[in-house]
Design a protein that fits this description.
- The chain folds into three domains: 1-53, no CATH class; 72-236, 3-Layer(aba) Sandwich (Rossmann fold); 248-449, P-loop containing nucleotide triphosphate hydrolases (Rossmann fold, 3-Layer(aba) Sandwich), CATH 3.40.50.
- It has 22 helices and 13 strands.
- The protein has helices spanning 2-18, 28-34, 37-51, 56-70, 86-97, 104-107, 118-131, 147-155, 182-185, 189-209, 224-235, 259-270, 277-284, 290-300, 307-318, 321-326, 337-344, 360-368, 403-424, 437-449, 457-464, 466-473, and strands at 74-79, 100-103, 137-141, 162-167, 214-218, 248-252, 273-276, 328-331, 352-357, 370-373, 379-381, 395-396, 428-432.
- The relative contact order is 0.10.
Length: 479
């Protein structure tokens, strides 16, 4: 019996150990974000719910096969009052966005009248979408117009990313007649009422079916140009269907582009951890461990800090609990494509890459105008400080802010920025760095709040350059 009791106690301990709280690997969430697994589950669940198939496994298998081509491609539907010249609107939007227009006439072109029905409309639309290559997006013209056509599209797993409803304020349809088509201008009062009644009858059904992608744009007192501009701003951005995300941001810019100032603002707004590479190397010099000894030894010998040491510092910092739980905003790194490859090889690579597009001469003027108070450490502008004041004598130029040092840093930045943009492809958000600081920050905050960029060539480039990653770890690149 004592042996049996001991055995039971051991079994109980084994069960308790198996029920312990599991720690999610640090690279799990970045992997989900990189390949948009959450959005895939969202799309599959939405289609299964709407179609309610008898064979769920076969349906999901077919859905995933179809989504392989249609993922990350904008599909825009316009629902507008009949008088609106929606053909002109869509054609101009197509030119500005490079989205392809798919019209009812194109779909029904070779079909006899007896086969022109919602199911054939959806079937032909599906064939065209699946057989297309490298399309940035689609705008559906003149369809769907009814509940039956909308449901037929859903059954073929054709769900719009944007459903734009052009609607007057307070249902007052006395909108700007400059928006009317030539045919609508010639309508009699009776024809106008008939068309509007048919439109209103279908409007609520369409809004209900496409409510997950619905966006209403008011048309009263808008010119055609204003309406096109409002629609353009909506359809070029993919809707955000992500779970609450942990931001991992990289801000790339020349010296004096206000990248660190912006990082501090993001830190205050989103509670991110600001990781600056120069500060990390300075802290590494006082570490009481093997890494700190190696950095101090290199300094004493006047040797540049090796790239592998920088990567060690960065890896340790980004895997600390605060960066994992709160996210981070990284500045002063990466400096070139090799740095980017190293950064992407970590467990928690960035999910937002922001490049500040600003003239380096403007950046140089900003940095060289900067003065430091030798007693208080406060930063002042030499141009704005009165030269006759007592404080002016206490100001000096920081050694890192000399013209020679700034020119060297910015020349290195200009040599590498285009290569880094080419490496990132569409995953890099380019922001106009010449904007006033409040508007510049607003633009950067908008990048964070939008949907994550589609996974593209960045990861593939990492895989193809694995040899160069290994070599760069042992290189003598320095800050």
């Amino acid at each position: 019996q004592p042996l049996n009791l001991i055995y039971l106690f051991k079994m109980a301990e084994a069960v308790n150990a198996s029920m312990r709280v599991l720690k999610v690997p640090s690279k799990f969430v970045p992997y989900m974000e990189k390949y948009k697994i959450y959005e895939l589950f969202y799309d599959v669940a939405e289609n299964v719910t709407m179609n309610q198939p008898k064979d769920h496994i076969l349906f999901i298998k077919n859905i995933i096969r179809r989504m392989r081509k249609a993922r990350d491609v904008n599909k825009v539907i316009f629902i507008s009052p009949p008088p609106i010249n929606v053909v002109q609107l869509i054609n101009r939007l197509s030119r500005e966005t490079s989205f392809k227009v798919l019209s009812r006439c194109t779909i029904y072109k070779d079909l006899p009248d007896t086969k022109k029905n919602p199911d054939s409309l959806a079937e032909k639309t599906f064939e065209i979408l699946m057989n297309s290559e490298n399309e940035k997006g689609w705008i559906f013209l003149d369809f769907p117009k009814s509940k039956e056509e909308a449901k037929a599209l859903i059954r073929k797993s054709i769900s719009p990313t944007h459903t734009i409803v052009l609607h007057p304020i307070n249902n007052e349809y006395n909108f700007n007649k400059y928006l009317w088509s030539n045919d609508a201008i010639l309508w009699s009062g009776y024809e106008f009422v008939e068309e509007m009644n048919e439109y209103k009858k279908n409007l609520n059904h369409l809004k209900e079916i496409f409510k997950s992608s619905l966006r209403v744009i008011q048309i009263n007192k808008k010119s055609m140009d204003e309406l096109i501009d409002a629609c353009f701003k909506v359809i070029v951005k993919m809707p955000n269907r992500e779970p609450p995300i942990i931001f991992r941001v990289v801000i790339i810019g020349a010296r004096g582009s206000k990248r660190r100032t912006l990082a501090k603002m993001l830190q205050n707004r989103f509670d991110l951890v600001h990781v600056d590479m120069e500060e990390m190397v300075n802290r590494g010099r006082v570490l009481d461990n093997e890494l700190g000894d190696e950095i101090r030894d290199l300094d004493n010998r006047g040797v540049c800090i090796f790239g592998r040491i920088i990567v060690k510092l960065l890896k340790e910092r980004l895997l600390e609990d605060d960066c994992l739980k709160q996210g981070y905003v990284l500045t002063n790194f990466p400096r070139d494509v090799n740095d980017f490859i190293l950064l992407d090889s970590l467990d928690t690579p960035p999910n937002r890459v922001i490049c500040l597009d600003v003239d380096t001469k403007q950046c140089k003027n900003y940095v060289t105008d900067r003065r430091i108070n030798m007693y208080t450490g406060e930063v002042h502008s030499a141009f704005k400080t009165n030269q006759n004041s007592k404080n002016f004598e206490q100001l000096f130029v920081h050694p890192e802010d000399t013209e020679c040092k700034v020119d060297f840093d910015n020349e290195n930045y200009e040599d590498n920025i285009n290569k880094m943009k080419n490496y990132c492809k569409t995953q890099c958000s380019i922001v106009d760095g010449s904007l006033p600081l409040p508007k510049l920050y607003e633009s950067i905050e908008g990048v964070l709040m939008n949907s994550s960029p589609a996974y593209g060539l960045r990861g593939k480039t990492v895989a193809s350059k694995s040899t160069s990653v290994t070599q760069s770890l042992n290189s003598n690149r320095f800050l």
